[in-house]
């Protein structure tokens, strides 16, 4: 529990995905900066892959390595979703649930003041409550996404959400009392119907989310009242739990250390040779896996657009034959590590073709770039609907049934956002919204209010 100096001990327990590790790590760093101790728990391989801590925080954040329990069907080297390849994520969830005994022992031995956990450990809140540890669920997705997932934690846990067919999810749910276009397309709905059903891990995603909300003293959301603030109020009303926005947590553009990095030197040289605002940056995060047809149509669409592009693509197998030769000089496919924020902040970049992950969307908009949106997984379609409503970008048109798209739809969307008069309003709205998304003082204020809340709501020792 809190020591005599008033310093708290906070445990962080993220899900096994890099899109979750990084927001949890950024929150850990802010808590540590305020004089508190943080224990960040994950597997050895995942912790070794995390960004290095700033020297001034190295003594305040302790990485706790707990080996991932073995599960039949899960290879030994798989410790995060990025390692799965074509394997079912249910195997990874089952292994994650196997953390329960080791994590329980750690909590018993270390007696922290708070534990901040992700969507998956439905078994954790009762353990922490029994040990008199204050509990918080940190949703790395937006408030609108959590609202869409279900009308209450009771409905998520008991399976009483009135929606059961894919068609039920292509309209906004009845519990949204204001006008909104937040809904899945038909081809996206198959995921959420599956997420509501029991999977091979022994618990559905909706059961997991409902359970972690039910057991939380406070629900944390990467969201702010200045952008779609009505969703925060609605989430609190539906879930009957205090909801605390953490702000958008816009990352800092780090310049130091890159001057001597060979990759960045080569990237910057290419970007320096392009016109101001002329380049579309293309990136889909570490989790999106495209079919050869999807990759091919995207590549041929970029070629057809005539627009300069920088495409960060770690696995380029499946690109159309001769593609890179044909676009040489105008477009580049970068197959190694690429510093996304530094690229997005370069003067030559004027737009962002993205899968619409919440983190990537924040990074693009904080720097004022309109988005060309091609969502693929889980919450990204819902994020795209919200951002299209706000007119800061457009979705590439797709077949509503199977989600396929064509090179022509890619090319037209890229040209509209980057070059055409019709795209001026999107470019202007993106610049306008960057005043909110990039306001570090505003978002640090949210984080500070959360740290104040942590300090004031420590459970008394029994």
UniProtKB/TrEMBL annotation:
The chain crosses the membrane at residues 6-27. Signal peptide: none annotated. Belongs to the UDP-glycosyltransferase family. It comes from the Eukaryota. The keyword Hydrolase does not apply. This is UDP-rhamnose:rhamnosyltransferase 1. GO terms for molecular function: UDP-glucosyltransferase activity. Keywords: Glycosyltransferase, Membrane, Transferase, Transmembrane, Transmembrane helix. Pfam families: UDPGT. InterPro entries: UDP-glycosyltransf_plant, UDP_glucos_trans.
């Amino acid at each position: 529990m809190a020591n005599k100096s008033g310093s708290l001990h906070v445990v962080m327990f993220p899900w096994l995905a890099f899109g979750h590790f990084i927001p949890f790590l950024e929150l850990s760093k802010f808590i540590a900066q305020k004089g508190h101790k943080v224990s960040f728990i994950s597997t050895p391989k995942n912790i070794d892959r995390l960004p290095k801590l700033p020297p001034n925080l190295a003594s305040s954040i302790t990485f706790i390595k707990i080996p991932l329990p073995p599960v039949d069907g899960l290879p030994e080297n798989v410790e995060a979703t990025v390692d799965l390849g074509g394997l079912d994520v249910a195997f990874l969830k089952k292994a994650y649930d196997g953390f329960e005994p080791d994590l329980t022992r750690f909590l018993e031995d270390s007696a922290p003041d708070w534990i901040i956990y992700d969507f998956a450990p439905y078994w954790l809140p009762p353990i922490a409550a029994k040990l008199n540890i204050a509990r918080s669920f940190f949703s790395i997705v937006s408030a609108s996404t959590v609202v869409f997932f279900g009308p209450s934690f009771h409905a998520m846990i008991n399976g009483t959400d009135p929606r059961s067919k894919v068609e039920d999810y292509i309209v906004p749910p009845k519990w949204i009392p204001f006008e909104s276009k937040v809904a899945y397309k038909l081809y996206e709905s198959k995921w959420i119907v599956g997420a509501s059903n029991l999977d091979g891990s022994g618990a559905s995603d909706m059961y997991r989310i409902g359970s972690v909300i039910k057991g939380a003293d406070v629900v944390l959301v990467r969201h702010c009242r200045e952008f779609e603030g009505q969703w925060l109020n609605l989430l609190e009303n539906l879930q009957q739990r205090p909801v605390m926005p953490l702000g958008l947590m816009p990352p800092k553009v780090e310049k130091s250390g890159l001057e001597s990095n060979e990759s960045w030197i080569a990237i910057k040289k290419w970007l320096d040779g392009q016109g101001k605002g002329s380049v579309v940056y293309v990136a889909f995060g570490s989790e999106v896996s495209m079919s050869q047809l999807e990759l091919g149509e995207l590549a041929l669409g970029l070629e057809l657009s005539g627009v300069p592009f920088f495409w960060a693509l770690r696995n380029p197998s499946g690109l159309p034959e001769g593609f890179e030769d044909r676009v040489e000089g105008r477009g580049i496919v970068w197959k190694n590590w690429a510093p996304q924020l530094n690229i997005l902040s370069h003067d030559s970049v004027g737009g962002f073709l993205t899968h619409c992950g919440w983190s990537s969307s924040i990074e693009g908009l904080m720097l004022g770039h309109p988005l060309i949106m091609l969502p693929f997984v889980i919450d990204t379609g819902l994020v795209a609907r919200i951002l299209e409503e706000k007119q800061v970008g457009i979705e590439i048109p797709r077949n509503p049934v199977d989600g396929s798209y064509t090179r022509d739809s890619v090319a037209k969307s890229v040209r509209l956002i980057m070059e055409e008069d019709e795209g001026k309003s999107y470019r202007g709205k993106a610049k306008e919204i960057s005043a909110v998304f990039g306001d570090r003082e505003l978002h640090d204020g949210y984080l500070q209010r959360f740290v104040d809340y942590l300090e004031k709501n420590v459970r008394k020792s029994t």
